[in-house]
Every structure is written in C-alpha cells, then in structure tokens.
Design goal:
The protein has a two-stranded antiparallel ribbon with strand order 1-2. By secondary structure, it is mainly alpha-helical. It contains three helices and two strands. It is globular and about 30 Å long. The longest helix is centred in the N-terminal third of the chain and has 19 residues.
C-alpha cells in the first residue's frame, strides 16, 4: 500500500513472503522444464516465460544439474546454448 510519502510503501500482511515466492518460482521453473520435453529449453527461452528470468534460471539450473534432477545438452556457447530438460 502506498503511503503519503511517494517513495515509501508498507506491507499489508504476510501473503507473498520471500519463502513462498521462492517455492512458486521453483515450481514454475520445474513445470516449464517438464513442458519443454526432451528437446529442452534455453536460458533465453526461459527469460520469455512470465514469472521467470534468465538470472533465476542461471542460479537454479546448475544446482539442479549437480543434484541430477535435470540434464543438459549443448556446449553453453552463443551458437550452441545449453538446452535444459528433465530426463525421462
């Protein structure tokens, strides 16, 4: 809610805390990876999904890859970007 001061805002309640936002982003990212199928999805494509960004993907996907939750194809270059996917 905007207050009398134009650059100051007050939080109305606990809805939308950082923890719940993280869960929602993780769920959205996971659902997008599943939907992309075996051909996978690039960082640039993830950046076009409402609610996601390339920065979010670059922080989460390598960790998920190390945990073996997801796989990737490509060399990571501009001409051969990583394509992230959920293994079958």
């Amino acid at each position: 809610m905007q207050t009398e001061h134009p650059w100051r805002y007050e939080i109305l309640d606990d809805i939308g805390t950082r923890d719940s936002a993280r869960v929602d982003i993780a769920e959205l990212l996971w659902a997008t990876l599943v939907k992309s199928g075996p051909e996978g999805i690039t960082y640039k494509q993830l950046d076009q999904v409402p609610g996601l960004s390339e920065d979010i993907a670059k922080k989460r996907l390598p960790a998920w890859y190390k945990e073996r939750r997801i796989e990737k194809n490509g060399s990571g270059s501009k001409t051969d970007p990583y394509r992230w996917f959920v293994p079958a």
